């Protein structure tokens, strides 16, 4: 589908209202999420890190931004019709004050970046950006597919192979982490955590369904566990993460 207004590709049913550079900057108005979704959590992590939200309950937060949960197992028709016809979260509605026009933005990585740029312009150096991107890329290319590979592998005979792939993924991610830690780039929570923490926080689901434990017999695993521990204890992560019980229940259809 392409937007009849600016002809750009769009997954939504609405016109995107092509941006005119002279317009007043748009305002984020509604963020559609699910507390179960690690991609959506990237956006809430970005907002919590910027001090805009202190939890993920539905409602209006600073600067008038509203959080709205979408039940992924029972999506409302209006969400498909008006926001994202693919039915995925996260999605962000922004509004142009000059015209009242709105536009829907999709995809967690650029969305989290957009929210961070809007609410907390980054003081990261080019090298910090590079290092964060290396972590994010290794997580996205190796850890995330291996995580889903293991959770989806229902055949007990094939689970050891899927577990081995996850461990190999962790061996690939670990060298992208700062050697001393405890966070990915060193002693502070950073963009690398905004992009990756949500996936680490779903490891207890693998413990529940696949009895996955982080081995301790290699420096790579020790460093990765140190990262998990630092991330799990961070207030921004705690404020945006669903309970283990809820996550376990949500992933049941995938795992069992
Ligand atoms: N590439 C997307 C992935 C988003 C995604 O897969 N969201 C899942 C939940 S974690 C979803 O909305 N699934 C609903 C569905 O597929 O019906 C992003 O980064 O935003």
UniProtKB/TrEMBL annotation:
InterPro entries in the record, alphabetically?
Answer: Glutathione-S-Trfase_C-like (IPR010987), Glutathione-S-Trfase_C_sf (IPR036282), Glutathione_S-Trfase (IPR040079), Glutathione_S-Trfase_N (IPR004045), GST_Omega/HSP26 (IPR050983), Thioredoxin-like_sf (IPR036249)
- Regions that span the bilayer: none
Q: Please, which domain of life does this record's source organism belong to?
A: Eukaryota
Q: Where do the GST N-terminal domain residues begin and end?
A: 27-123
One cellular component (GO) term of this entry? cytoplasm
Any one Pfam family match given in the protein's UniProt record, by short name: GST_N_2
**Domain GST C-terminal spans what residues?**
125-256
This protein is called Glutathione S-transferase
| Species assigned in the record | Allomyces macrogynus (strain ATCC 38327)
